[in-house]
Design a protein that fits this description.
The protein is mainly alpha-helical. It has one domain. Helices cover about 70% and strands about 10% of the residues. It has a two-stranded antiparallel ribbon. Strands 3-4 form a two-stranded antiparallel ribbon. Keywords: Amino-acid transport, Membrane, Mitochondrion, Transmembrane, Transmembrane helix, Transport. Pfam families: SFXNs. It is a multi-pass membrane protein. Belongs to the sideroflexin family.
Length: about 230
């Protein structure tokens, strides 16, 4: 589902006429999907005594989605509001800013939705799969790793096609706008498909953490030098 949204959003940034509210809506849909995916594929061992964990994550997720969508569309809103139409501004807003912003906001939504994992901790296990304890430090490590992998996935998948399309335009390989749009779609699909396994393999699904890096109560409960946790996706 993220692929067509990704292609449409990327194509919209290159259109001659684009409205900031349309881009904001696309960002909202995109971050809603990725946030829902994060919610369903996180580590489920964290507990909350204040109110149901799922409810807390949904509230956090809605806030993160709204914020990410607004930040993603902000450069274009700023450009349109102040009629900054110079070639340099067009380059910065349409070519350079979208990739780092999308990567940063993707990492941000992961961190917000999965914040209960580093607030309340996740289970750590020994080599035999026996649960040794619940660690906030392991939860923080798991969330950081997942956020970084998500930022690399979407940031790179947005940046590389833009760079490649620029060279295609300069070399005049695509003779008309329709051909250029087809080339852009092919590049986005190829880069996103290639980056997906790369981002998933950046960190192992079963993460490792040294006992010395965990809380004192966990260190005293086992002799294992390395413990393991479920990182989530």
């Amino acid at each position: 589902l993220s692929l067509p949204l990704y292609i449409y959003e990327s194509s919209s940034l290159n259109a001659k006429l684009i409205f900031a509210d349309n881009l904001s809506f696309l960002q909202f849909v995109f971050h809603t999907y990725t946030t829902g995916f994060t919610l369903l594929n996180g580590n489920a061992t964290a507990k909350s005594e204040e109110y149901p964990l799922q409810q807390k994550q949904i509230f956090h997720g809605l806030g993160a989605i709204s914020y990410a969508a607004c930040i993603g569309a902000l450069p274009l809103v700023f450009m349109n509001r102040y009629t900054l139409k110079s070639s340099l501004m067009q380059l910065v807003v349409k070519k350079l800013l979208p990739a780092p912003l999308l990567g940063l906001m993707s990492a941000f939504t992961v961190a917000v939705v999965r914040s209960p994992e580093f607030e309340n901790g996740i289970e750590v296990m020994d080599r035999n799969g026996k649960v040794v304890g619940v660690s906030q430090k392991a939860g923080e490590k798991a969330v950081k790793e997942t956020a970084l992998s998500r930022a690399v996935l979407f940031g790179t998948a947005f940046f590389l096609p833009a760079v490649l399309t620029y060279f295609v335009e300069r070399a005049k390989f695509a003779k008309n706008p329709r051909a250029l749009a087809s080339v852009r779609m092919l590049m986005i699909t190829s880069v996103l498909a290639g980056m997906l396994p790369v981002s998933l393999s950046m960190f192992p699904q079963c993460g490792e953490i040294k006992r010395a890096d965990l809380e004192p109560e966990i260190q005293s409960s086992t002799e294992e030098t390395e413990l393991f946790y479920n990182r989530g996706i």
